[in-house]
């Protein structure tokens, strides 16, 4: 009997504690922080694509074009760590109507341009030496971690300010944070104004041109915070 009474007492205490926890005055809000930055570098993904009926010949031509592209990149004094082969492929293409097989060879390079003033010169060189497909141009900041930290701090300040606005009419104060959740999406920021694709015609290569508007990138942080009310 005593054992039963002890169990009941423990259950009642646990229930009371749970009720007390539920009755704690608190407020939950979301906070957003945003930092706008002018990008200072770009990552280019570009491909040399070659087609033909002989697999060996197609691969040979593709390799020759890629070699010329790499030589051009080296002449621009890019750091060896700033460019690499991303993907190499040789695929058969079967034409069911003609009942013939052709081959498609591709090599994709990833190049980091840390000085955007070299962007146009590099693009012209890539196309003139054999690149025939620009897959993507992504503008970035070399100080991304720094700006992400700033965005997180701004998000927390925004959350606290919202909480203070809500409770200001109640005669209460915002106390310590009970829970903090980071809801920021894990993605790379994109430029507000994206790159305009360069012309493939090389007739005006001698004339300096600007073919990209880098704009700015937005780095955002989103948090959910629960504050204790005093």
TrEMBL record:
Keywords carried by this UniProt record: Signal
Q: Which Pfam families match?
A: SIMPL
Report any one BP term from Gene Ontology.
Answer: DNA damage response
Q: Which InterPro entries match?
A: 26kDa_periplasmic_antigen, SIMPL/DUF541
Q: Where is the signal peptide?
A: 1-18
- What is the protein name given in its UniProt record? SIMPL domain-containing protein
Q: Which organism is it from?
A: Flavobacterium muglaense
